[in-house]
Structures are given as structure tokens and as C-alpha cells.
Amino acid sequence: MPKSAKFTDGSLVQGASWGRSFRVLSWDKPSWTVAYGNREIHIHPSGKRRLSVFEAMLLQGFPQSYRLLGTLSQQIRQVSDCIPMQVGFALAESIRTSIYR
């Protein structure tokens, strides 16, 4: 259960941002950048909870079957530190094209 009163007082509405720690996602808008630190995981559009590591992984483009290892903090860091796979692929393709012209 979230400890902050913001989760129960109605202030966390879709699209609201109360600094890095309280960014509420919207169902119909793109997510803010997935770059998490200590207790800075985006808030689910319902405003009732933070995203799970699995939901953050999906935002980063991980396949649903992908598994992370380590503690919760280590998993959050892994998701936060990665480049979305689609971006990495596009970057690699661009480099390959530039090298082999």
C-alpha cells in the first residue's frame, strides 16, 4: 500500500505531475521517459498505485516473457537504465548502414 496521502486525497489525476516522484500517466497520452530513481516510478493512470516493474518493462518495449533478476531495486534500475529495444535496434541499423555504404 502506498504511504503518501496523495494516493488517497484525490490529487493524483491523469496527467498530473508533482515533481519526479508523482507523475501520473494518462491512458491516452505517451508516457514520460522511463528513468526512475529512488521511489520515482510513474503512477498508474488510476492514481491508486505506482507502476509495477512488469508495467515499466512493457513501457520500455520488453517482451512480456522477459524476466529480470535481482532485488526490486535492482530490477527497477535495470528497466530505468536500458534503452528501449526498438530505439537500440534503429540506432544499430543506422550505424550499420553508415559503415557499409
From TrEMBL:
<keyword id="KW-0808">Transferase</keyword>
<dbReference type="InterPro" id="IPR050390">
    <property type="entry name" value="C5-Methyltransferase"/>
</dbReference>
<dbReference type="GO" id="GO:0016740">
    <property type="term" value="F:transferase activity"/>
</dbReference>
<keyword id="KW-0949">S-adenosyl-L-methionine</keyword>
<dbReference type="InterPro" id="IPR029063">
    <property type="entry name" value="SAM-dependent_MTases_sf"/>
</dbReference>
<dbReference type="Pfam" id="PF00145">
    <property type="entry name" value="DNA_methylase"/>
</dbReference>
<keyword id="KW-0489">Methyltransferase</keyword>
<dbReference type="InterPro" id="IPR001525">
    <property type="entry name" value="C5_MeTfrase"/>
</dbReference>
<protein>
    <recommendedName>
        <fullName>DNA (cytosine-5-)-methyltransferase</fullName>
        <ecNumber>2.1.1.37</ecNumber>
    </recommendedName>
</protein>
<keyword id="KW-0680">Restriction system</keyword>
